[in-house]
Structure formats: C-alpha cells, structure tokens
Amino acid sequence: MTSIPLAASPVDLGTVRALMISHVDNAGVSRLKVVPGRKIESAARSGSTVSLSVALLLAIDDHVCRTDELDSTVGDLRGIPDLGAVAMIDPIAGLAWAPSDLHTLDGTPHPACSRSLLKRLGREAEADGLDFTIGLEMEFTLFTGSADAPVLAHFGPGYGVRPFLELEAWHLDVLRGLEQAGVPIEQLHPEFGAGQVEVSFAPRDPVRAVDDYLLARHVITRHSAAHGLLVSFQPVASTATSSNGCHIHFSARRDGVNVFHDPAGSWGVSDEGGHMIAGVLAHMPESVALLGGSTLSFERLQPHNWSGAVICWGVGNREVAVRLMPGYAGLEATQSNVEVKCADPAANLYLAVATVIASALDGVRTEAPLPEPVNVDPELLTDAERAAVGVTPFPADLSEALDLLEKSAFVREAFGSMLLDAYVAVRRHDAATYGALPVDEAVALTRWKL
Questions:
Q1: CATH 3.40.50.300 corresponds to the domain 13-110
Q2: Which residue spans adopt a coiled-coil conformation according to this UniProt entry (predicted)?
Q3: What is the Cα–Cα distance from 260 to 253, expressed in whole angstroms?
Q4: Contact indicator for 204, 186 with CB cutoff of 8 Å
Q5: DSSP H/E element including 117
Q6: Which end of the chain is more exposed for a tag (fewer CB within 10 A), N or C?
Q7: Which has more pLDDT, 1 or 177?
Q8: Are 7 and 84 in contact (CB under 8 A)?
Q9: Contact, 174 vs 183, CB < 8 A?
Q10: Which residues contact 323 (CB under 8 A, 6 or more apart)?
C-alpha cells in the first residue's frame, strides 16, 4: 500500500492522548475509530481500517445495504486522517479530532468517498478560474429529560434573551468549546422554535467549511451531555416545535471579484452569477435527495416554514429554495452570496455542498438562463403566475426524490455511479422503513441517530 505524505498539523500531536478519526457515511451519520496518541503517525500514513459496510453501506438504523458493485460482506478501506485539519477538543483530556478520507488498499481515494469528491469539485472550479467559499447555518434542537421521555429545553420566545439566559452556562461553554477547537463561529442564538438553537459559521473553502460543521456537532453534543442536555440534529426532532435546516451559503469569485455582486447586472448579480443560480435551480429536483435525504427531510419542506419549500429563487425571500443575499451597504462586493435554504442536517454535507457546486458550475458551462425572481410568498401566487416564473414543487417524498436522483445523468457523471448507487441504496432503506410511519413515530425512532 502506498504511504501517505504527512501534512503539518495545527495541533501539537505530542499532547494528543486519543484521536477521533471520523468520516460521514451515506446516511449522514458520523462514524469513527479512535487511536491512541502513539498511533497517530501510523494512522496518518496507512490509515485506520474501516470495513466497506461501515464506510458506505450502513443505513441510519445500522441496517446493512448493498449495491451491484459493493458487497457489504467483502472488502476493507482505510480512513486516512487529515492531519492538517486536526482539532483539539479537550486539551486537559488530550482528546482531538480529525476528518478522514476513505482510501482503497492501494492508497488512492475510494470512488465513493464524499470528502474526496468535494475536493475534486473544488479543483475543477479552480481549473475554471473560480474560487468558491461556503458558509453554513446549522439548526438543532435541545432537550432535557431522558432519551425515552425528552422535554424541549426552552420555550422561547424565538430569538429571545430569556432562553439564552435560561441556558446561559450551556451557551457559553459551547462557544468556549468551539473557539478552543478552532471552529470559526459567527454567531449562536436561540432560534424560532422551542428548544431550537442556531449556529452560523464563518465562510471557508468548501471542504474546511464542512469539516467545521462536523466538528461543531461533536463539540455541541459533548458539551450538551456535560450539562445534562440531549441534542438532536434531525430535520424534525419533535413535531411540537420548528424543524431544523442546515442552510448552505455559497459565493464565488473570479479574479477576486464576487460574481454575486454587479450593480450593472440584472437583479444586482453578474451574468455568471445568474448562470450559477439558474444551474442550482435547474438541477434541484434531481438533487434534493442529496440536500437532506431522509424521510423527515420532506416533512420539513412545508410552506410558511422558512424552509425553502418550493423550487424558485428570490432576493431575500425566506420562502424560496434559493435566496440571493445582497450584502450590507458598502460591503456588497464582500458579503453578497446565495443561500440554499432547503438543505438540512440529515444530509451528508460533503455531498450536499458538492451538488450545489457541481450545479453552479454546470449553470456557467451551459449559460443557463436565470428566471424571474419571486419576491413574495410563492403561496400567494396564482397557478398562472407560478408557471410564468418557473415555480415548481419538490418531489412529494423521499422515494420520489430518489427515483429522480437515480435516473440523473448529471449527478451520475459528477459523482460517479459507485457513489451514487451506494447513496441511493442507503436512503431507499430510510424511505422503505420510515416513509409510511406516522411522523411522530418516525421522529421517535430516529431522533438520536445523527
């Protein structure tokens, strides 16, 4: 097996007693191996063993799936920790974390490794002269009580001072933990729903942005447990409160110039920026199963829920799937970006961000025309008005979305058949197992799985 060159680590590896080496599978679940400090260099050179089933074929309830190309009983991969992304979670305990790439035994990235896919798409964008940055907004739900009898941890008001102060010690410990781990947080606040919290991340290059997001989930889970709280990252963690999204903000620059700010362009964006928005919209029906991908993801996509429940775009509109976010006066060239609102935490975020970038690049390459924006609640439009501006519904449920994804020549070419078929197989188990259940029952069975 080929030895992997070691990257410089931002952490003194001599202080690490245990390194969590994790990857995200096709169910959106973080799986891991833990190695003692003395084994870090060995793991970085030749990886930690990950069975093919654990790497790619476990469903959210650990059901083992298979595809024509991948037999869950045969084969091993190596999880190669990225030492350049090591983060210290607890200096006193000596606990650190690193994301990993899945490699075959010959030392090359496995064709179905989602993190490697996102790296490849980043290189393709750079080859086209484009520099993408990603900023994520993650919503989640906190509970007191027990796993069997959870109680929402706060009862608002939304964005209120009161729920912050009631959970002040938790909020401050989480902020401290995230800062200690090197996660660049923009803000943290109680969200609209009871028990709901949102964390906003500073924009970074695509891979590091998703790494930050995953690390933050681990830090938040750890500190919540220390405070006697339970945390759920499901898109629907309770039907008694608001659903959780994971909004993907993306911007792109060519020669240092933000393509989503052009005062002379239509709606304030350049022609190239318009092509990107159009590309994301055009491929959204076939790719929405990658932006969430669980049965509960489609329960979340409801009107009047600020979830982006219909396929169209608008300027600052919270009810559309794709929202142009102009920057603050005088800072538009720095801040203007596009938000994909219909994504949620059930996704493998490497794949979700990959599909956004691939769609945007395709929009540029095909010069996709940008439709008229929708700057009202789409529910207020007549059928004729909706048709005139290209407002289209999402697939009705996960099964229908997976049918479109599986048939997508665009996604199959961008992702490769091995990855796409493994993803579809895993998510079809979700649809078959939870799709016909009452929502409350599906929530109860999956609340703590992510």
A1: no
A2: none
A3: 8
A4: no
A5: helix 114-127
A6: N
A7: 177
A8: yes
A9: no
A10: 308, 313, 314, 315, 316, 317, 338, 339, 341
Helices 206-226 and 114-127, packing angle to 10 deg: 140
Provide the β-strand partners of residue 20: 34, 97
CB 283 within 8 A of CB 361: no
Contact, 258 vs 333, CB < 8 A? yes
> For residue range 66-118, what is the model confidence (pLDDT) as tens digits?
999 999 888 899 999 999 999 999 999 999 999 999 999 999 999 999 999 99
Tens digit of each residue's pLDDT (9 = 90 or more) over 220-279: 999 999 999 999 999 999 999 999 999 999 999 999 999 999 999 989 999 999 999 999
In angstroms, what CA-CA distances link 242 with 54, 308, 441, 444? 32, 14, 17, 16
> β-strands 95-103, 18-24: how paired?
parallel
The mean per-residue pLDDT over the stretch 16-29 comes to: 98
Question: Largest alpha-carbon pair distance within the chain?
Answer: 66
Matching residue, tokens 């429940």:
309
The terminus-to-terminus CA distance of the chain in angstroms comes to 33
The Cα 310–Cα 333 span in angstroms is 28
DSSP H stretches of helix in 7-113: 40-46, 52
The whole-number pLDDT of residue 80 equals: 97
C-alpha 11/C-alpha 154 separation (Å) is 36
> What gap in Å lies between CA 347 and CA 290, rounded to an integer?
6
Q: Are 81 and 40 in contact (CB under 8 A)?
A: yes
pLDDT at 1 exceeding the cut of 50: no
| 148, β-bridge pairs | none
CB 323 within 8 A of CB 339: yes
User: Domain boundaries in the chain?
Assistant: 13-110, 130-447
Residue ranges of the alpha helices (H) in 128-205? 161-166, 168-180
- pTM (2 d.p.): 0.96
Type and span of the H or E element at 421: helix 417-434
Q: How far apart are CA 1 and CA 183, in angstroms?
A: 33
- Please spell the DSSP secondary structure of 269-322, one letter per residue: S-HHHHHHHHHHHHHHHHHHHHHS-SHHHHHH--TTTTS--EE-EEES-TTSSE
Q: Are 44 and 63 in contact (CB under 8 A)?
A: no
Percent of the chain at pLDDT > 90 equals 90
The third-level CATH classification (topology) of the domain covering 130-447 is: Creatine Kinase; Chain A, domain 2 (3.30.590)
